Amino acid sequence: MITEFTPLTSAFGGALVGLSAVLLMALHGRILGATGIVGGLMRFDNASDWALRAALLLGMLAAPTALLLVTGTGPTIDIPVSTPAILLSGVIVGFGTFFGGGCTSGHGICGNARFSRRSITATISFMVGAFVTVFVIRHVIGA
Length: 143
Hints:
Blueprint lengths: L6 H22 L5 H7 L6 H25 L11 H17 L4 H10 L3 H25 L2
Helix pairs in contact: 2-3, 5-6
């Protein structure tokens, strides 16, 4: 399996995510956690909060749409695993975000920037889990 190295587009994307997190905190006093944003869309008790969450989600969907409109091609998504493996992975990640109290964006970007011990621990945990998973899949199983 070949992994593409795209430092410029990755740095640009990371800068946009960081800017989004800073602006959300500066303008709304909120932490940018993608799973919390999506999960909050399931509640309708606060109209202004729901509208903010919907706007953030629409913004996340607007970027690939803008790329498609500007370049004529959308982002290439190549997932070299089966649909059941993707579904199982999604369930595992869902449990992880539930029991870990957040996701990679909430802990990894915003929590670490605030020097939260809980977020630093969570980030170390999911990074170690990712390293072990990639090692096992690529070098032990050989997929």
